[in-house]
Amino acid sequence: MEKHVMTDGKRRKGLAAAAAVLGGVLVLSACNDGDKGGSAADPSQSGQSQAQVDEAAAQKTSKAQITISPKNGAQNASINDDAKVTVTDGKLTDVTMTSAEGTAVKGEISADGLSWKPSGQLKRGTVYKIAATAKDASGLEAHENSSFTTVSQANSFIGNFTPENGSTVGVGMPVSINFNKAITDKKAVQSGITVSSSSGQEVVGHWFNSTRLDFRPENYWSEGSTVTMKLNLDGVEGADGVYGVQQKTVTFKIGRNQVSTVDVKTKTMTVKQDGRTVKTIPISAGSPENTTYNGQMVISEKFKETRMNGATVGFTDDDGKGEYDIKDVPHAMRLSTSGTFIHGNYWGARSIFGSVNTSHGCVGLADVKGAGDPNQQAAWFYDHSIVGDVVIVKNSADKTIAPDNGLNGWNMSWSAWKAGSAV
Question: Which residues does the entry assign to the active site, renumbered to this chain (predicted)?
Answer without folding.
Answer: 343, 362
